[in-house]
């Protein structure tokens, strides 16, 4: 079955991706495409907490997804999965802080969120398996 670390990283990665997506749905001014999707599925009430979502929850969920992808390497030892899984949260964090002043930063946010969701779906469809035992893996 799953080791405790593997179980935590699998659940944490999904929670981070979905939390970041829902947080972005709450800000119609920042992310109109995602917010319109959120309003279409009945999440328009989130707009009243837009500041909390963008300033607190979106970075928090992106950091959660980033940490879980990095920790995931310790359970499955596949650097390419951890690397690809870390790109989305890094893009979201870069678009929120250093690149927020530029007009193209929302496109980077959309790309990062899309990549986070895609990697989460990839992980559900084709879970990572450890490719070596503890004696042959190098840390």
From TrEMBL:
<keyword id="KW-0472">Membrane</keyword>
<feature type="transmembrane region" description="Helical">
    <location>
        <begin position="83"/>
        <end position="100"/>
    </location>
</feature>
<keyword id="KW-0812">Transmembrane</keyword>
<feature type="transmembrane region" description="Helical">
    <location>
        <begin position="21"/>
        <end position="46"/>
    </location>
</feature>
<dbReference type="InterPro" id="IPR004891">
    <property type="entry name" value="Mercury-R_MerC"/>
</dbReference>
<protein>
    <submittedName>
        <fullName>Mercury transporter MerC</fullName>
    </submittedName>
</protein>
<dbReference type="Pfam" id="PF03203">
    <property type="entry name" value="MerC"/>
</dbReference>
<feature type="transmembrane region" description="Helical">
    <location>
        <begin position="106"/>
        <end position="125"/>
    </location>
</feature>
<keyword id="KW-1133">Transmembrane helix</keyword>
<feature type="transmembrane region" description="Helical">
    <location>
        <begin position="52"/>
        <end position="71"/>
    </location>
</feature>
């Amino acid at each position: 079955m799953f080791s405790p670390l593997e179980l935590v990283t699998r659940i944490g990665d999904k929670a981070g991706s979905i939390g970041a997506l829902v947080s972005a749905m709450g800000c119609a001014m920042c992310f109109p495409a995602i917010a319109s999707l959120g309003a279409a599925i009945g999440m328009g009430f989130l707009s009243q907490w837009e500041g909390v979502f963008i300033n607190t929850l979106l970075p928090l969920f992106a950091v959660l997804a980033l940490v879980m992808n990095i920790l995931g390497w310790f359970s499955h030892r596949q650097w390419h999965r951890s690397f690809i899984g870390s790109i989305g949260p890094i893009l979201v964090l870069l678009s929120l802080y250093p690149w927020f002043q530029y007009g193209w930063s929302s496109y980077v946010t959309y790309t990062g969120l899309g990549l986070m969701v895609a990697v989460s779906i990839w992980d559900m469809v084709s879970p990572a398996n450890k490719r070596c035992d503890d004696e042959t893996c190098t840390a």
